[in-house]
Amino acid sequence: MERTLVLVKPDALQRGLVGEIVARFERKGLKLAGMKLMNLTDATLDEHYSHLKDKPFFPGLKSFMRTTPVVALCLEGVEAVEAVRGLCGVTNARRAAPGTIRGDMGMSNQCNLVHASDSLETAQAEVKRFFRDDELLSYASASDHTVYADDERK
Ligand code: UDP
Ligand code: MG
Q1: Distance between CA atoms of residues 129 and 6, nearest Å
Q2: pTM (2 decimals)?
């Protein structure tokens, strides 16, 4: 099983959309391995968005991400990284497909409701960045055997 990181961003928190967003991941069949409300520090954001540090929107992005706490989720599933990115939709919410979180709930390129890891390698680093080992839980769920066929679970 893969694990991936999602951040429910401050715009979603302020708009009261946290529950709706978490529900979409649950309904898809992804399993919650970690979940917490947290304030992001400047240092964490510098690291998390280091690939964007030369972009003109970087200072604005950092200050947006510190407006309120965010909800960090670690989601588990077969090919979870790709599945979660698909549920989120493309970066610019105005252009995101209907049916996706960004497509259904957003109109902004920056205030686009969610962050999701973009590759397995990134996911491993990002889960570590936001969760300690003892904050990630493995447990059996009644749906484990209905969400996947036996030969799909790995
Ligand atoms: N972003 C922005 N302006 C842009 C592009 C991106 O403010 O022109 C913000 C937006 O919140 C986005 C984040 O920077 O989610 C990270 O950008 P990335 O290209 O990694 O997009 P994502 O992986 O979130 O779709
Ligand atoms: Mg990204």
Answers
A1: 12
A2: 0.97
